C-alpha cells in the first residue's frame, strides 16, 4: 500500500491541554494528541479500514479513527477507562475491556493498521508493572520488554499483509538515569515486522522526562 499523505520526518506538536478527566485519570504525557493520531491514520490507512489500538488509554486513536471515517477496535485493561472511551465514540463496541498480553484469548478480526502508544516503564526504580495497568508491583524492565514485544507480535498477527504497525514510544530520563525504551523496543520489533522509518516528535515545550519521542513505523511482512 502506498502512503496517502506521507508524514514529515519531524512532526512539531504543542503539548495539548488535557481535559479535566485526563488530568485526574492520566499521568502527564500519557495521552498523545488527536492531531498526531489524525496524521498517522490518514497516512497509513484508507477510509473504511479498521484501526486497532491494543492500549486504548483515553481513546485518542479511536476518536481520531472515527473522525477520519475509519473503523476502530481497541483493548483497555482499566474498566473505568473503557467506560470513558466508550462515551467518546458513536459505537461503544469499538472498545473492549481486555488484557492485550492475552490477545489470542479474544476473537479479533483482521485489521488494517495497528496504532498505539504503550504504557511506559523506566529501567530503574519502577516496581509498578505497566502491563497490569500499574496495578501490581512485580515490574521488571527486561520482562516488560519481552511481554510488550509479544503484544506487538500478536497485534501484527492480526494485521493484513502490508498493513502498518505504528508505535509511539520515547527514550526517557529520570533522576539522571536514561531509559532507552524506544531503542530497546526497536531492537525487538525488527524481528516482528519490517522497519520502514521513524518519525521524530518535536514537542513545544519539550517535556523534561523525555530525551526524544518517536513514532516507529513497520510493515507486516508478506
Ligand atoms: C500510554 S496509555 C495510551 C494512551 C493513548 N494513546 C491515549 O492517547 O490516550 C496506555 C494504556 O494502556 C493500558 N494498559 C496497560 N496494560 C494493558 C494491558 N495489558 N492490556 C490493555 N491495556 C493496557 C493502560 O491502562 C493505559 O490506559
How many distinct helices? 6
Q: Give the low-pLDDT segments.
A: none
Helix content: 25-40%
Bound molecules: S-adenosylmethionine
What's the number of domains?
Answer: 1
Please outline the major beta sheet: 9 strands, mixed
- What share of residues are in beta strands? 25-35%
Q: What is the CATH architecture term?
A: 3-Layer(aba) Sandwich
Nearest-integer average pLDDT: 94
Provide the succession of SSEs. EHHEHEHEEHEEHEE
CATH superfamily: Vaccinia Virus protein VP39
> Which CATH C-level class is it?
Alpha Beta
Instruction: Report the end-to-end length measured between terminal Cα atoms.
Output: 12 Å
Class from helix and strand fractions: alpha/beta
Report the C-alpha radius of gyration, rounded: 16 Å
Tell me how many strands there are. 9
CATH topology: Rossmann fold
Shape: globular
Amino acid at each position: 500500500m502506498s502512503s496517502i499523505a506521507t508524514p514529515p520526518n519531524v512532526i512539531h506538536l504543542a503539548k495539548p491541554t488535557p481535559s479535566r478527566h485526563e488530568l485526574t485519570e492520566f499521568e502527564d504525557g500519557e495521552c498523545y494528541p488527536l492531531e498526531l493520531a489524525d496524521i498517522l491514520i490518514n497516512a497509513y490507512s484508507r477510509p473504511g479500514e479498521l484501526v486497532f489500538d491494543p492500549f486504548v488509554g483515553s481513546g485518542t486513536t479511536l476518536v481520531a479513527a472515527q473522525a477520519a471515517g475509519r473503523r476502530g477496535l481497541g483493548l483497555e485493561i482499566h474498566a473505568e477507562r473503557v467506560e470513558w472511551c466508550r462515551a467518546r465514540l458513536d459505537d461503544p463496541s469499538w472498545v473492549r475491556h481486555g488484557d492485550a498480553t492475552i490477545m489470542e484469548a479474544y476473537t479479533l478480526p483482521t485489521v488494517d493498521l495497528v496504532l498505539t502508544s504503550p504504557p511506559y516503564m523506566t529501567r530503574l526504580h519502577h516496581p509498578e508493572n505497566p502491563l497490569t495497568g500499574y496495578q501490581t508491583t512485580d515490574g521488571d524492565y527486561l520482562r516488560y520488554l519481552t511481554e510488550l514485544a509479544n503484544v506487538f507480535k500478536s497485534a501484527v498477527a492480526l494485521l493484513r499483509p502490508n498493513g502498518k504497525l505504528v508505535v509511539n514510544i520515547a527514550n526517557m530520563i529520570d533522576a539522571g538515569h536514561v531509559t532507552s525504551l524506544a531503542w530497546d523496543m526497536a531492537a525487538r520489533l525488527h524481528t516482528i515486522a519490517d522497519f520502514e522509518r521513524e518519525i521524530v516528535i518535536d514537542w513545544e515545550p519539550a517535556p523534561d522526562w523525555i530525551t526524544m519521542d518517536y513514532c516507529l513505523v513497520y510493515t507486516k511482512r508478506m
